[in-house]
């Protein structure tokens, strides 16, 4: 199988600027040394996605995902590691020298990647027919696009094409180019008649509109018939492993940078609307492709802007069916404007009729806020009927109720009260009732789901079934340690005989007891050990070369104190081994080194250390003259506590082992020894906890 040489991988990773890459997908705003945005991986109202340009990494605090530009592209585009590298290589014009794949290797390739290759072949095939096929493509397809007023450049920009009016023309061409028939079926380009055991082209005698993802890859097609009696008028690709129509918007690849620049997104319905508006200078426009607006499509818009202008033609029935989309936009706290076109006109036809300048003026002067639009829409047929008027008010109030922002909601109620000449308090009360009914429905649904789950659990419960050991899901346990009367481990070298409180080599002079960042009582023992190992690696990579009070480096102190310990979490053990290996070569590595050279799993872990979730505002010192020390200034303190935490955990391990011995019904003499040891261990634990400022809750054995 083809592979990307290591030196090319390194060139791609070094060339990829994290700010540039991330800005292709989300709108970033600078705050301090980092840049922030709403997470592209989840739905949120407060920015928790951070980019650190100096370290060339990102961190999403709402999902925990972090890493370099390659990792970001993998996550946001759902690509494999090689696919993400190729995406960035194309962006930064880096040539990848890969070996040509054999037919056997091509068959083994990742299915997703194979489908991308097939769709790209199809796009080029349809484009070629439009431009060069003198029988159908050029005289029929090109004539249609010219009649729509599309220029040659616009046709090229949107990769428009034509499909031959033949049952198997595309299939035959694809098979000649060594594509497998089952992959053509999976891509939705050909259909299978299982009864007749035949296949045929899905798209025949139609003009083709390629649908692209955010990265510009063709993932599907929309196709319009040129025959009056041919149904359906528009035929789209089916759902495939690379195309989910509810997740994509037509024109998003062409529009994303313009949406960010204009801080507004025009939302329309059809392919030709998007293309006409682009040609008339309105390039921040996308279409829902004839489907109802979905939650994922709204999330996609929200990556680039919080302002949406919805374009409606004059069809009242169509508007009423689309109003649900406005409510969904409101629920996501987007700011909405509406533009209504004259009867019989749509964005495409009206743009062609007015021309670029007048059409832009029309959009600017005919925008309405959603309250005014919806009120006027429902009031059209109210006349003097009080019941219809009341129903119109409820429709508008229902929409306002979905707005999460309280200030916006208050302003909307004021506007609605003015339009309908109704007391604002009445509208607020109606809204509260709507919300209460919604909460009651949700609560009732939760209760029903819980009852169903309980019934299922009871049905599946097997009598006398042994409960699953809770330790089954823990990380590998520490090695078994017998409890000696005198502790010999170097890690406990300072312990006097018969288990006395531990000390460390260099306690800071000004050490004060305070609550540690991580509660030693939260989580299972295995989870706490994993947390400790993670913190150890963080100290090592961020501060390893710093000098401590005793004129030793942080890494020297950590290695000396943890020499007898084995790390149990694979990824942290691997990082530790890399660190020690590089030390043997005379190199002291840090976070930046591993971000540049580490494999994706390591990059994701270490990026978590490199990006700070919270930064101290300059107002603390400049305005209030309050100085907040950085962690680096308190290193002796922090490291001392860190070592104490591990010793505390070792005591917990020993107490657990001792408790298990008691549960095995030992002899009276052995039981007395175990109890004595147990009390001594508890005494050590309490003294350690006092130094750490941690409450201790252990089993008291009577």
Throw out a few tags for this protein.
702 residues, alpha+beta, DNA primase DNAg catalytic core, N-terminal domain, Dna Topoisomerase Vi A Subunit, Chain: A, domain 2, 5-stranded antiparallel sheet, 5-stranded mixed sheet, 50% helix, globular, disordered C terminus
Summarize the structure.
The protein has 702 residues and is α+β, with helices and mostly antiparallel strands.
Can you walk me through this structure?
A hairpin with a 2-residue loop joins β1 and β2. It contains 28 helices and 16 strands. The longest helix is centred in the middle third of the chain and has 37 residues, at 424-460. The strands form four sheets. The chain has a five-stranded antiparallel sheet. It has a five-stranded mixed sheet with strand order 13-12-14-15-16, sandwiched between helices. A four-stranded antiparallel sheet has the order 6-9-10-11. It has four domains: 6-91, Alpha-Beta Complex (DNA Primase, Chain A), CATH 3.90.580.10; 103-243, DNA primase, catalytic core, N-terminal domain (DNA primase DNAg catalytic core, N-terminal domain); 252-434, Dna Topoisomerase Vi A Subunit, Chain: A, domain 2, CATH 3.40.1360.10; 490-692, no CATH class. Helix content is 50%, strand content 10%. The chain is globular and about 95 Å long. It has 702 residues and is α+β, with helices and mostly antiparallel strands.
């Amino acid at each position: 199988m083809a592979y990307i040489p290591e030196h090319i991988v390194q060139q791609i990773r070094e060339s990829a600027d994290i700010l540039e890459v991330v800005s292709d997908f989300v709108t970033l705003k600078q705050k301090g040394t980092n840049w922030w945005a709403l997470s592209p991986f989840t739905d949120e109202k407060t920015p928790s996605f951070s980019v650190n340009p100096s370290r060339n990494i990102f961190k999403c605090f709402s999902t925990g995902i972090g890493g370099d530009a390659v990792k970001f592209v993998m996550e946001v585009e759902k690509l494999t590691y090689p696919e993400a590298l190729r995406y960035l290589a194309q962006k930064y014009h880096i040539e990848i020298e890969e070996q040509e794949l054999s037919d056997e290797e091509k068959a083994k390739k990742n299915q997703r990647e194979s489908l991308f290759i097939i769709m790209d072949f199809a796009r080029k095939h349809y484009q070629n027919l439009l431009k060069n096929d003198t029988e159908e493509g050029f005289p029929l397809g090109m004539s249609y696009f010219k009649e729509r007023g599309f220029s040659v450049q616009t046709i090229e920009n949107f990769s428009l094409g034509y499909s031959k009016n033949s049952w198997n023309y595309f299939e035959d061409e694809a098979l000649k180019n060594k594509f497998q028939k089952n992959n053509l079926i999976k891509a939705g380009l050909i259909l299978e008649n299982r009864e007749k055991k035949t296949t045929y082209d899905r798209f025949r005698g139609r003009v083709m509109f390629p649908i692209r993802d955010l990265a510009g890859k063709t993932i599907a097609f929309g196709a319009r018939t040129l025959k009056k009696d041919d149904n359906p008028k528009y035929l789209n690709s089916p759902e495939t492993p690379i195309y989910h129509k509810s997740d994509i918007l037509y024109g998003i690849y062409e529009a994303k940078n313009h949406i960010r620049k204009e801080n507004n997104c025009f939302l329309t319905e059809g392919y030709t609307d998007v293309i006409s508006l682009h040609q008339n200078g309105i390039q921040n426009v996308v279409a829902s492709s004839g489907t109802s607006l979905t939650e994922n499509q709204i999330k996609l818009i929200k990556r680039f802007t919080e302002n949406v202008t919805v374009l409606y033609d004059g069809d009242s029935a169509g508007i009423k069916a689309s109003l649900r989309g406005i409510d969904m936009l409101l629920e996501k706290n987007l700011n909405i404007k509406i533009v209504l076109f004259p009867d019989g006109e749509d964005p495409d036809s009206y743009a062609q009729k007015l021309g670029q300048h007048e059409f832009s003026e029309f959009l600017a002067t005919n925008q309405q806020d959603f309250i005014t639009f919806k009120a006027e829409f429902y009031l059209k047929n109210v006349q003097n009927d009080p019941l219809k008027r009341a129903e119109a008010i409820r429709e508008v109030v229902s929409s306002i109720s979905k707005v999460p922002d309280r200030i916006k909601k208050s302003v909307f109620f004021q506007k609605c009260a003015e339009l309908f000449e109704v007391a604002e308090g009445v509208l607020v009360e109606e809204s509260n009732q709507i919300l209460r009914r919604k909460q009651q429905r949700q609560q009732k649904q939760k209760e029903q789901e819980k009852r169903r789950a309980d019934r299922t659990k009871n049905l599946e419960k097997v009598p006398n079934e042994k409960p699953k050991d809770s330790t089954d899901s823990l990380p590998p346990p520490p090695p078994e340690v017998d409890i000696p009367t005198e502790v010999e481990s170097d890690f406990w070298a300072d312990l006097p005989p018969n288990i006395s409180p531990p000390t460390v080599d260099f306690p800071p002079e000004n050490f004060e007891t305070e609550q540690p960042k991580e509660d030693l009582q939260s989580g299972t023992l295995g989870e706490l050990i994993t947390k400790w190992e993670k913190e150890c690696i963080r100290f090592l990579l961020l501060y390893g070369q710093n000098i401590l009070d005793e004129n030793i480096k942080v890494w020297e102190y950590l290695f000396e104190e943890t020499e007898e310990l084995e790390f149990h979490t694979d990824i942290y053990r691997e990082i530790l081994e890399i660190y020690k290996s590089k030390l043997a070569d005379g190199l002291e590595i840090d976070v930046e080194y591993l971000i540049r050279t580490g494999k994706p799993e390591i990059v994701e872990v270490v990026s978590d250390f490199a990006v700070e979730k919270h930064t101290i505002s300059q107002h603390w010192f400049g305005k209030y003259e309050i100085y907040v020390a950085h962690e680096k200034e308190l290193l002796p303190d922090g490291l001392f506590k860190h070592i104490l935490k591990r010793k505390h955990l070792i005591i917990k391990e020993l107490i657990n082992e001792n408790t298990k011995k008691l549960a095995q019904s030992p002899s009276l003499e052995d039981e007395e020894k175990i109890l004595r040891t147990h009390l001594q261990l508890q005494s050590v634990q309490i003294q350690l906890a006092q130094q750490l400022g941690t409450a201790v809750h252990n089993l008291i054995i009577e």
